[in-house]
Amino acid sequence: MSDPSRESKVIEVSDKAKKLIAGVLTVLMFVLVAFATLELAGGMVRAIVSTIRDGSDGVALSQEQLLEAFSAFLTVLVGLELIETIEVYFKGKSIPVVTIMLVAITALARKVIVLDMAHYDPLAIVGLALLVAAFPVGYYFVRRAGLPEDAG
Could you read off the pLDDT of 43-52 as tens digits, one per residue? Predict the structure, then answer.
C-alpha cells in the first residue's frame, strides 16, 4: 500500500509546478499579445501615412491589407482568450470546456475570415467546413448538458 501523506506531497508539488508553468505561460502570452498589438497598430499607422504621403484620395487599404489587419486583430483576440483561460485555471483546478470551445471557435473564425481558397486543397476546405459546423453544435450540446462552469 502507498503512503497517503507521500501521495499528498506529490500532488502538492505537481499542483505547484502546474501553477508555475501556467504563470510563465501567462507572462509569455502577455508579451506575445503586446507585440502583436504593437505590430497591428504599427501596420495600420504605416498604411495611413503611406496613403497620406502618396496623396491618394481613394481607398486607404487594399482588400489584402484589410484581411491581414483582420487576421492580426483576431490573433490578438485569440491570445487574450488564451490568457483568460489561464486565469480561469488559476482560479480553480480545471478549465471549463465552454471556455476552450469558445477559444477554438474564435480561432476557427479567424481562419475562415482570412482563408484564401486558391491556396488550399478542396479536401482541406471541406474539413474546415465540417469544423465550422461541428464546433457550434458541440457548444450547443455542452451548454445544454448544463455542465458546471468548472467541468473539464
Answer: 888 877 877 7
